[in-house]
Design goal:
The chain has nine helices and five strands; from the N terminus they run βαβααβααβααβαα. A five-stranded parallel beta sheet has the order 2-3-1-4-5, sandwiched between helices.
């Protein structure tokens, strides 16, 4: 099938974004299984993380007991992890014609540290461009939860990380930031209502993924077979 290693088809880079509790991890797992059922072998990864260096930074950033820091220092740490992530994980996989799916990428910094945190967006965009070498996802799926109550219910039983423990006002700005992001980058951002039932969200995401893969030349004629095998 086009899109596998050595076929000459381009790799495809997909990111899942959204506020904490929006269902990113659940939908990543479902999307991965669906692609695998079609004979594809996606690279599933996350940000910050993906590399040994990135995972150490992730621990420092998210551990509730980690030292407090300024938002700008936090931004620079994300950029450092991202630089390793792109050079060691994403670009090599794309060069092999793989589909790369990441839970969070540069847009998270744009929203969390920029729009909600107060670091100028122009600074965020410059740092992201340096860290990634200008690499944007082909498709960014933003899962939005409109009601704070739903988010709180989903996070109620979870041990919250350092950023999840920030104020309700901060997280409301995060949700607003993702809506602004979708307006700012309509060429690649698909806005998905994460408050729908899990099957409906999966169906919306799948259609967006089918669209981008078809544009990249992937043959999805076995889609029905793959769907029936789920």
């Amino acid at each position: 099938m086009p899109g596998t290693i050595g076929t000459g088809f381009p790799g495809v880079f997909i990111s899942l974004e959204g506020c904490d509790g929006s269902g990113k991890s659940t939908q990543m797992a479902r999307l991965s299984r669906r692609l695998e059922s079609l004979g594809l072998s996606p690279v599933i990864t996350r940000e910050p993380g993906g590399t040994p260096f990135g995972e150490r930074i992730r621990q420092l950033l998210l551990d509730p007991d980690s030292p407090d820091r300024s938002i700008l220092s936090e931004t620079l740490l994300y950029a450092a992890a991202r630089c390793e992530f792109v050079s060691k994980i994403v670009r090599p996989a794309l060069a092999e014609g793989r589909i790369v799916i990441t839970e969070r990428y540069a847009d998270s910094t744009w929203v969390y540290q920029g729009y909600a945190g107060g670091v100028p967006l122009s600074t965020i965009e410059t740092l992201n461009a340096i860290a990634t070498g200008g690499l944007e996802p082909d498709l960014t799926l933003v899962l939005d939860i409109g009601e704070e109550r739903v988010v709180n219910e989903r996070l109620a039983t979870k041990r919250k990380d350092k950023i999840e423990r920030r104020s309700g006002e901060y997280h409301q700005k995060v949700r607003e930031g993702y809506r602004q992001l979708a307006r700012r980058y309509p060429h690649r951002v698909a806005y998905v209502d994460g408050g729908l039932d899990v099957h409906s969200v999966e169906a919306i995401i799948w259609q967006e993924v089918v669209n981008i893969l078809s544009k990249k030349g992937y043959d999805l004629t076995d889609e029905k077979r793959g769907r029936e095998s789920l």
